[in-house]
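Raw record, unedited: DUF2427 domain-containing protein
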Amino acid sequence: MKSPTVILAPLALFISPTIASKAYGGLDNETKTFKTLVAVHGALMAFCFVILFPLGATLIHVLKRQSVVWFHGVWQIVTLLIALIGFGLGIYMVHHSRSNVSLWKSFNGHPVIGTIIIALLLIQPIGGAIHHSLYKKRTSSTCSPEYKIIAPSANLGDEASK
């Protein structure tokens, strides 16, 4: 069976050459190394954000067992580690461009938005641990009514079980 990177790589190569040449300020996107880096970066990030993160979020609501919380936490942290590898590849490509365009001076928002998303993802495990400890104390939903109005899909599992 082919690895997810091999399966998703053609999609990254199809999308990325035009985007990458603008985003990374002149890194020679015709080289095999650059195309490989873009493909692996795109495949890892797509695999994490399209498959692994949503699957980990869904499993906690589908499997109603005590141990599923720990499985969910480990799943999401492993997925975060994979995303950090993809993020590292993106940073490497930005910093090794021919024109040495810095991450924040890039004319493309992709590196900046990606950095913000990864920073927020690094905070997420702390929020999850706090949420779980509050849930254990209350044995009921820890979401306020305002949050349920603002982000109803985030609490879909609690509502579906009522």
